Amino acid sequence: MRTLTLGDRGKEVSDVQKRLHALGYELGNEGLDGFLGPRSQLALRAFQQQRGLLADGVLGPNTWRELVEAGYSLGDRLLYLRVPNFRGDDVLALQVKLNLFGFNAGPERGIFDTNVERALIDFQRNAGLPSDGIVGDDTLRKLEALRKAESGREGKKIPDRDEGFVAATSLTGAVVAIDPGHGGQDTGVVSPTGQREKDLTLAIGLRLAELLRAEGGRVVLTRELDQTVPLYARTDMIEAAGADFLVSLHFNADPSPAATGAVAYFFQRSHYYSEHGARLAAAIGGEVGRLSDGGFVAAVGRNFAVLREPTAIAVLIEPLFLSNPGDDRRAGRPDYVEGAARAIVAGFARYLARA
């Protein structure tokens, strides 16, 4: 699926409109005409907002995957562990039920992985069903019969047993993935003075890698050059490396030049959020925010692909608003890259120290 924006036409747009319409989004008089006009874009924005995505009205890889997955309801298809994994809202509904019933199906990502299979088999065994790891009619009926157990609990987070902290107290031996955002033809944000997001993220990422290796960490970079790396190629690389942590580096921008400060993101989808990610985002964001005129704005839950896809504890950091004149000047100082990289390492130390 190519990236679609306002004014695009074609069969791909018709497909998107059909999916939005099936999910209950109003397309107005545009209907299913194959033209991505203002009403269709408004519906797309509403979908993105509901799914915790960047509500920019642009259909890129992340939004397209979410749109496809939103079309599945539990019971629409037979679910089991396979390669590639089943993905969709039906898998998410299964995970929610299993977690609410006390069977640990892992982070509620909507991906049928080994955590989901293990929890499903455990549920089937306890329910007196054949423990085959397949969500068939008998398993669905048993899940439906137990739905009253969810009454009053839906929407409540099942707390992590370790309250959002890992057992480790240092980075020694930990695999840390660093994802310098953008690259190649994708420059990202360009500041008023001409600073490019892709250059800043790469510079910080390379220096951060050196610092983390000095702390005993094993580092994986999704890019080490000014090159284009597709979104899901990045997440596949991170998962293949068996990363314990992920730091995705980006910079912010806003139509208002007054917007300033550091923002950190962690994985959140509906009622579920990563406690590990939330704590790490707050720790790193608090340190990085010291380098911004606006300080640390907030740690925010989002369903961005780079946060959802990896099983690593993942955060996305935006240290500055490059659209802000003060932040722009700060990012251009010779010592900024060093300071930002060291602030991220300090955030890790704060998180691991359970501060």
Structure, explained:
The protein is an alpha/beta fold and 355 residues long. It is 39% helix and 11% strand. The chain has 12 helices and 7 strands. It has helices at residues 11-22, 38-50, 61-69, 89-100, 114-126, 137-145, 197-214, 231-240, 275-288, 305-308, 325-331, 336-352, and strands at 175-180, 218-221, 245-249, 262-269, 272-273, 296-302, 313-318. Strands 1, 2, 3, 4, 5, 6 and 7 form a 7-stranded mixed β-sheet that branches. Strand 4 (262-269) and strand 5 (272-273) form a beta hairpin. Helix 4 packs across helix 5 (114-126) and helix 7 packs across helix 12 (336-352). It starts with 10 loop residues before the first helix and ends with a helix.
How would you state the average pLDDT, rounded? 92
Number of strands: 7
Q: Could you list the spans in which at least 5 consecutive residues all have pLDDT below 50?
A: 152-156, 158-163
Q: Report the β-strand fraction as a percent range.
A: 5-15%
The geometry reads as: globular
- Biggest sheet features: 7 strands, mixed
Computed CA radius of gyration, to the nearest angstrom:
21 Å
What pattern of helices and strands is seen along the backbone? Answer: HHHHHHEHEHEEEHEHEHH
